[in-house]
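Write out this protein's structure.
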Amino acid sequence: MTSDKRTLEINKHGVSRRQLLALTTAGMATGIAGCASSPDDGNGNGNGNGNGNGNGNGVDDTSDLGPEDLMDSTVDVMAGTTPEEVNMNRFGLNTGYHWIVREYPALITTSMDEPEWIIYDGEGSYYDADTLTWHHKVKEDEYFWADGDPITAEDFYTWFQVNQLQNPPDQRWAEEVNLVNEWEWEIVADSPTNPLIQGWGNITERLALNKGYEREWLERLEDVSTDSEREEISADITNTRITIQDFIDNGMSSSVWAPVDWDERSVTFEKNELHPWADSFAYDELVAHTCDGAACDQLIENDLIDIGTNRFPEELRGVSPDHLQTITESRALGSRNLYFRYLNDHMANRWVRRAMLTVLDLTFLVDFWQGEGGFIKQDQSGMDAAAEARFLGPDFVDQLYDYPIEGDEELAAEFMREGGYERNGDGLWENGDGETVEFDFVSPTGSLFTTLASAINDVWQGFGLEPDYLTRDFGYLVPNLQDGTGDIDVTLWATGWGRGDPRDYFSPVNPFFLHLYTLGTDDHEAWLDEGLEVSPNNGRPIVVEIPENPGDIYLEGPTKEVNLIEMWDEFVNTQDEEASIEIIKDFATYFNYDLPRPDLFPQVNALWGNTRDFAFPDDHPFYHEVPDRTQHLVHRFGVMQGRER
C-alpha cells in the first residue's frame, strides 16, 4: 500500500516494488533505532551526507505550521522485524513494532519536574504516601483502540493484573488492585516506596495490552489455586502467537498508528483518526521496511527511506541523496556494555574482568562503531552521566577507580597476574592449574551488535584470551540470561534506557541490569533464609565485600560487607533520602569494584531525515529529552511537518 507521492518517487529512481522487496532480503536484525538521550549533551552537529553547513541550523524551524500546511504523503522507515515471523504478544519472543503501535499513559524526562500526561489525566493520577496507593485516572473518551473502542481504566487494570498474577503471591508488590470505575483504577502497595522513585509508578510503561486475549488470561489466573496451575497458564500466555494479522483484526494498536496491511518485507500503518494528535501529522501513512546492513544502505541510496535513527552511515556520505540530513545528535541514556556471568571460573575472577575491560581501546571502538566524535563512558559507576550528576555528585565520581579508556595492555597484564594468571609459551594466559581463559562470548545477531563484538573479540584474542564468539537472537538471549542456562559467559549488551533512575541500573530482577534473580522463577527470599552468598542463577555475588573508599579496588583500606538483594529491598522501601543516596553510592562502588556489567560507551541518539519533503523543528524537546527512541516519538507526536511544494 503506497501513496501516489511514494509511487512516483520509486518509479523516478527506477526501482519497482519487486526490486524493493529484493533490496530488503540481505538480512534480518535488530531495529534500526537509537535509545534515550540526555538533554545536556546534544550538539546538533553534522550532516547525513556531508553536504550541509554542519552547525545544526540547516533545517528550517517550522514549529508554527498548522494542520492547514500538511500534505498527503507516506513516510518510509526501516525496521528489523520480519512481518511473517513477528509475534505481537507482549509476553512472547520475537516481538516487534511496539515503538509504533503502543501509547504511553504519560512521559517524563530527566529535565522535567512534571510528566507530559497523555492517556492519563494528571489531575487524577497521583501517589498517596499515607495509604501507599497509586491512583490512576484515564482521560474520558479521548483515547481509542484502533477498532474504535475507548481506552478505559479496565484496560490498564487488566494489563497490570495479568503481569502481577503470573508471580507467586509472595513476589507481588501490590497488596491489592482495584478497578474504581470506568475511568479510574488504583494499586495499593504492600510497603512504602522510596520518595526518589514513588512519583513514577508505572505511568511511563506503554499500554501493551493484548486486546482480545488478556481478559480471558486474567480470568484463568484469578482462578489459580496451585503454583503448578499458575506456571502452566503462564507458559500458555508466553507461547501464544499473535500474528501481525491478528493484531490488525483485533484492533490492538493503542497509539496514533495502526497496521492495516503487510507483505513479506514491510508493514503499512495508517493514522487512527480518533487519536487526539492525529491532525498534527504531515503524513497519512507509515511504511516500515525490514532490512539490515547492506540492504538498508541500498534503500537509503535509492531514496526510499525518509527518516532514521543512529548516525547516518559514514559509507553513504556523498553517494546518498543530498536531502538526507542529520537533524540532531545527543548522548543517549542507553549504553553498550559487557554483561558477565560468573558461572565460568575465569569470568568469576574479577581481575580477569578488569583486564578484559582495560585492554579495550574504547576511543577506537566508539569511533569504529559510531563514527568520529562518539561519546566515551568515563566512569564505571553502573550509571549514565546524567544519573551520576543527580545521585552521586562530582566529588564521589572523582573517587571511583579510573579504568583506562584508551586501552592499556600493560595494566591489563598486571590485573591478570593479580588474578593468578601467567602467559604460557604460546602467549596465552593460564591459571595455576594450567587452564587457559576459554569462554563463550555471545552477542545478539544483527550488524548493530556483531560489528562491534567482532572487534572486541579480536582484541581479546590478541591479548592471549580464548573467546569462542557466537551470535544468538534476542529470543534466545533474554530467557538464557534470566534462567542461567545455555552457552553465555559474557555478552555484548545494551542497558540504561527508561526512567533514568536507580531502577534502570541496579535492579536485581531484570536481565538488563544487575540481575541476581528472576521474579516468578527464583525464590530469592529462600536464598536469603538459607544464607546463600552467590546467585544460583548466574554466579554473581549476593554478599560481597566492597571498599569504603570507592576507588580502592586493591582493598588496601577499610572495607564493608553488603548483601546486594537486601540493600536493594532497603532502597526501594526507605523514606530517608540521605539513606537512599548512601545506598546508591554503595551500588556504584560495587559496580566500579566488581565490574559485573562494565559500560563501554553511551549510544548516540541521532535523527536524520528527508529535509526536501519534511521539516524538523530542531528545538523540539522530544528530540532530546524523552526516555525512549527518538524516531518513535517523532512518529507519535507530529514533530515532522510537511513542506509546501
